[in-house]
Amino acid sequence: MSRLHITCPHCPSVVFSNDRPAVVEKRTLRSILGAEEKGPAEVERYYSLKDPFAFDNISVSKPLASNIKLLACGECEKGPLGYFDPAGKEYLLLCSLEK
Ligand SMILES: [Zn+2]
C-alpha cells in the first residue's frame, strides 16, 4: 500500500501522511457551503477516513446547521480542506490537495 502525503496549501504543515485511504465521490464543498445547486448534485473526489488520528494535523470546525463539520489545517486553521460527514462518520479530505 502506497503512502499518501498531503501538505497544507497555505503553510508548510503536513496535514496527512499515512496509508493511502479509499477514494469516494461525495457532494462538493460548494454545495455544503450553500451554493445554489442546479440539476443533478455535483460530486467531488475525496479520501475517506474513519479515524481522526490518521491525520497529522487537522482542525475540525463547530458543526454547521447541517451538522457537517469543516476540516481545516491544524496549524494555520485555513480551509476548508474537506469535511466530516456525521451521517457516515467519515472524514473526507479533498483529493485535489494532493500535489
Ligand atoms: Zn496550514
Task: Using brief descriptors, characterize the structure shown.
two-stranded antiparallel ribbon, 99 residues, binds zinc ion, single chain, Metal Binding Protein, Guanine Nucleotide Exchange Factor, Chain A
Task: Describe this entry's structure for a reader.
It comes from Schizosaccharomyces osmophilus. One of its GO terms (biological process) is small GTPase-mediated signal transduction. InterPro entries: Mss4, Mss4-like_sf, Mss4/transl-control_tumour. Keywords: Guanine-nucleotide releasing factor, Protein transport, Transport. With 99 residues, the protein is mainly beta. The chain has a single domain, classed as Metal Binding Protein, Guanine Nucleotide Exchange Factor, Chain A (Beta Complex). The protein has 1 helix and 8 strands; from the N terminus they run βββαβββββ. The protein is globular and about 35 Å long.
